[in-house]
Batch of 2 targets.
Target 1
Amino acid sequence: MKRRSSSTIPFGYKLMEDGVHLEEIEDELKALNKIVPLVKNKVLSLREGAMWIEYDTGRSISHTGLRKIADRYE
């Protein structure tokens, strides 16, 4: 469980009923962990990665949102 730190709910999380904490969404985080390394290694473009994540999870993410996540990914 993660504490909310901004008004934006990050991809892979949902706001809990208390309105303060975030709950992980396992399927979305697994999709990110699968796609981000491919984007960083230039196997997929950011747009291709974003489309794949939306297809896999049903939740949309922009290519710029994916880039921000990839930049923070270790």
Note: The first strand starts at residue 2 and ends at 3.
Target 2
Amino acid sequence: MLAVSLDGRLAPPDGGAAQLGGPGDRRVLEEALAWADAALVGAETLRRHGSTCLIRQPDLLDQRRRQGRGGQPHALVLSRTGALPAAMSFWKQPLQRWWLRPREAGSSPTAAPFDRQLPFDSLLELRQQLAGLGFSRLVLLGGADLASQWLAAGLVDELQLTLCPLLLGGAHSWCAADPGLGLDRRRWRLLEQRPLEGDELLLRYGREEPAR
């Protein structure tokens, strides 16, 4: 799930955090986190923001407690090196932090102190490992490279985009333009369209199965 500009950008031309979503987007984001077992985030996105998203709404925190789950979903960081600045507020957030690392990259002696490491050879294997550990409901928070990799692997079941009334321009599209990724070409069907505060629009799509 991502907040994007009208021209499909995540960030301004010079990069950095665009802070696109308003209060309405924040609410639907927290609703998704309340549903999720874990949230996936790329290391570079985490470095740029310094922290990950937390559930703050009391009704959503109560909902998770009634279901016998922790207050926050696990934070799953995909990174080759696991190197994140020690001063980031991410390390003080009240959640479990896992490092998901490609096995080919090896383990790094400079990796940050995650609660657990989970090596993998492919995204499909990783998805199966996570399901076996009880993480069947995942929210992908970005960035663009991570979203594109999971789309290319055919592992994304729904797209949830908050369309924000801005034009940013530049190269920072929410979906990487690398043609070598071979993105899944199946069509997506509209599941929900909801106006949000600040003239934003929530669009939720489900992936259609190929025609038989």
Note: The chain has five helices and nine strands.
